[in-house]
Amino acid sequence: MLDLPLTEKTFGRALFEQASRQGQRPFLLFEDRRYTYLDALGESRRLAGALAELGVGRGTHVALLMANHPDMVWSL
Question: pLDDT at position 27, please?
Fold first, then answer.
């Protein structure tokens, strides 16, 4: 695990570390679907790529209005 200052510890980094160690283990159960750590990392990266294409980057403020759904977790 990276020994980073608290200000540099992000959800994305923590997810990457966990996916590296426990990739196929369950990360999230929602309704009848099971998401592994690698699934979560892939969804998070897909969303990050789409936002980057729209010009969203570090320091950009983004508002989210979402239902209770795994997409909310990937958005972190």
Answer: 94
